[in-house]
UniProtKB/TrEMBL annotation, chain A:
Residues 9-246 form the ABC transporter domain. This is ABC transporter, ATPase subunit. Keywords: ATP-binding, Nucleotide-binding, Transport. It comes from Oceaniovalibus guishaninsula JLT2003. PANTHER family: PROTEIN TRIGALACTOSYLDIACYLGLYCEROL 3, CHLOROPLASTIC. Gene3D superfamilies: P-loop containing nucleotide triphosphate hydrolases. The keyword Nucleotide-binding applies.
From TrEMBL, chain B:
One of its GO terms (molecular function) is phospholipid transporter activity. The chain crosses the membrane at residues 107-130, 150-170, 182-208, 254-273, 293-315, 335-356. Its main location: membrane. Pfam families: MlaE (PF02405). Could be part of an ABC transporter complex. It is a multi-pass membrane protein. One of its GO terms (cellular component) is ATP-binding cassette (ABC) transporter complex. It is found in: Cell inner membrane. The keyword Cell cycle does not apply. PANTHER family: ABC TRANSPORTER PERMEASE, ABC TRANSPORTER PERMEASE PROTEIN-RELATED. This is ABC transporter, inner membrane subunit. It comes from Oceaniovalibus guishaninsula JLT2003. Belongs to the MlaE permease family. Keywords: Cell inner membrane, Cell membrane, Membrane, Transmembrane, Transmembrane helix.
């Protein structure tokens, strides 16, 4: 476990239920500054729910969530605004505003949070759009004119528009072809090191887990079952974790050696 | 930000909050020093690189004093700088305006052609259903009849009743000057039965049901449900469009009839209160002086108005593209175009009936 002082996100004793359906109970998680952490878990284990609680879109029933050492739950609207500027969220499939062009989408958070001259804002948004590897002619296109991969890139550009310290990515590579997914992984890695980001990534993609994640957290049985590097995950003796990291897809992603030596 | 001894030096945090306030005048520097900069983000990096670009001389200007992390950001931004001489956006001149006008005109003509084609498709599909009545979706038809017909009764009746009241009231004020109060019956009967009852009903239905058709079919189009239907061998026109259009064509005459009755009732009530024309007098004058053709002229138009409203509503719905914006835009287009076309066709009918002489 990380020492408390270098945790940028700290979740303690989180409880969340919808009606009688309990999603999280006694969930603890630490995310260290500057790492890429991958959150995995079966469908319905509340990966996205956890993400939404950390960024304050959902209210937990009980427990404590601290980001940058401040509790997300007990902030005043002003503090929350300030806190929110320090992270960026990329939703599945980008969640771009369909009536705005790509550049206007990236400009949107700047327009809301800062008072910048128009030309400066446009220039900075243009840099972000180029950074995520979108071609020059994509800047003035509308989301409906883009492919799924490009929409995800544009969503990522919007998430990093304000140079956040943390980016939350919800299934960044889902629905991309293997080449596109690998390129997106590389992009996350590059920007993470260039901008010094902490990346909180919900994913099912074993290739991305293997390629870019420093640590992996497994959600199961309503809590974080295990946190550690990929190598540590392979040694964990839990039916679901074994199934996940030793299944045929995992073997293909990690190579036969990695799974056989413990299997 | 200071310039001394040919060195442009930055200090403090250089970020998205501070770059807008920095001066544009750079003086004359041959090197840039950022060793005193605390936090540097992409906006700050852009500013440093932009300064470097604006100071450009024969030789490259070095940026000194960057920490490892700052160097990473500078490298990342320098690979993604905006192109240097991007042409300023052109103001629209006269030629562009004329061109835009021309394109709009051609686009309008194209829409008219497409709409006619769509109308043909709908009519052909309806013809097919007449030949094979089993293909008609009865459940869907009845559902839409309830939705567009039965549920519209209160608003249509209320509106028409009030129109009758207004006509009687205004008519009475004018006719009283000639002592011809009793002609208010003819005024109300002809105005309501021939024109207003059905026209206003069609306008209300366009706003109520035409927009609902566009929104419903449009959101199905957005979620690719319409495409899914096609791949399953289902004809969206037979399933989505025909029941709606047919329901409207069956219900609009009924609504028109109810509107006529309500309009006459409203007129009769006002005539009684305002002019003392008793209901019995009103009735006998109505029967004696108003030709049944006035009523028929109104009702004959109803199915045509229904066809216009239904076809335009469905056509605009099927034109919706991938975004929420187009759904909203086309919904309002659908209502505006439908009302406009209803009035145009009403005018054509007026001319037609005048020539025929009824």
């Amino acid at each position: 476990m990380a020492r408390d002082d270098d945790s940028i996100i700290k979740v303690r004793g989180l409880k969340k239920s919808f009606g009688t359906h309990v999603v999280h109970e006694g969930l603890d998680l630490d995310v260290r500054r500057g790492e890429i952490i991958g959150i995995v878990g079966g469908s319905g284990t509340g990966k996205s729910v956890l993400l939404q609680q950390i960024v304050g879109l959902l209210k937990p029933d009980a427990g404590r969530i601290e980001v940058f050492g401040e509790s997300v739950r007990d902030t005043s609207p002003d503090e929350y605004r300030r806190l929110r500027r320090r992270w960026g969220v990329m939703f599945q499939d980008g969640a771009l505003f369909s009536s705005l062009t790509v550049r206007q989408n990236v400009e949107a958070p700047m327009r809301e949070q800062l008072h910048l001259p128009d030309d400066l804002r446009e220039t900075l948004a243009g840099i972000k759009v180029r950074m995520v590897g979108l071609p020059e002619n994509a800047q003035d296109k509308y989301p409906s004119e883009l492919s799924g991969g490009m929409r995800k890139r544009a969503g990522f550009a919007r998430a990093i528009a304000l140079d956040p310290e943390i980016v939350f990515l919800d299934e960044p590579t889902a629905g991309l072809d293997p080449i596109g997914a690998a390129a997106f992984d590389r992009l996350i890695g590059q920007l993470q090191s260039a901008l010094g980001l902490t990346v909180f990534m919900v994913t099912h993609d074993l290739d991305s887990l293997h390629a870019i994640c420093d640590r992996v957290a497994v959600l199961a049985e309503k809590r974080v079952l295990a946190v550690g590097t990929m190598a540590e995950m392979l040694k964990i003796d839990h039916p679901w974790v074994r199934e996940y990291f030793h299944g045929p897809r995992a073997r293909a992603a990690l190579g036969p050696d990695a799974t056989d030596e413990v299997g | 930000m200071t310039v001394s001894d040919g060195t442009l030096a930055f200090s403090g945090d250089l970020g998205i909050d501070s770059v807008a306030g920095l001066p544009h005048d750079l003086g004359d520097a041959s090197r840039i020093d950022i060793s005193d900069v605390g936090h540097l983000d992409t906006a700050g990096a852009w500013f440093v690189l932009d300064c470097k670009r604006r100071l450009r001389r024969q030789d490259e200007i070095p940026v000194e004093g960057a920490s490892w992390a700052q160097r990473q950001i500078l490298d990342a931004v320098s690979q993604n700088m905006p192109p240097e001489d991007s042409p300023p956006p052109q103001r629209a001149g006269l030629a562009e305006r004329i061109e835009r006008f021309g394109r709009a005109t051609v686009g309008f003509a194209r829409i008219a052609v497409e709409l006619t084609g769509f109308l043909g498709q709908v009519v052909a599909t309806m013809g097919g259903i007449v030949m094979h009545p089993r293909r008609l979706r009865i459940t869907s038809l009845v559902h839409h009849m309830q939705d567009t017909g039965l549920n519209a009764v209160p608003i249509v009746v209320l509106m028409s009743f009030l129109i009758g009241v207004v006509l009687a009231f205004q008519g009475a004020a004018q006719l009283r000057q000639f002592g011809a109060e009793v002609f208010v019956v003819d005024l109300i009967a002809i105005a309501v039965l021939r024109e207003l009852g059905i026209l206003l009903t069609a306008i209300i239905v366009a706003g109520r049901s035409g927009s609902a058709f566009t929104a419903a079919i449009g959101s199905m189009k957005m979620r690719e449900e319409v495409d899914a239907m096609r791949t399953l061998g289902l004809d969206p026109i037979a399933i989505l469009v025909v029941p709606r259009v047919l329901a409207l064509m069956l219900m609009l005459p009924v609504l028109g009839f109810l509107a006529d009755v309500a309009g006459l009732l409203g007129g009769a009530m006002m005539a009684w209160i305002e002019l003392g024309v008793s209901p019995a007098v009103f009735q006998s004058r109505l029967v004696a002086n108003t030709d049944v053709w006035h009523f028929l002229v109104g009702i004959i138009k109803a199915p045509f108005f229904a066809l216009i409203v239904g076809v335009i509503g469905c056509y605009e719905g099927l034109k919706v593209g991938g975004n929420a914006d187009s759904l909203g835009r086309l919904t309002s287009t659908s209502v505006v175009v439908a009302i406009f076309m209803v009035i145009v066709v009403d005018a054509i009918f007026s001319i037609f009936f005048a020539i025929v002489g009824v």
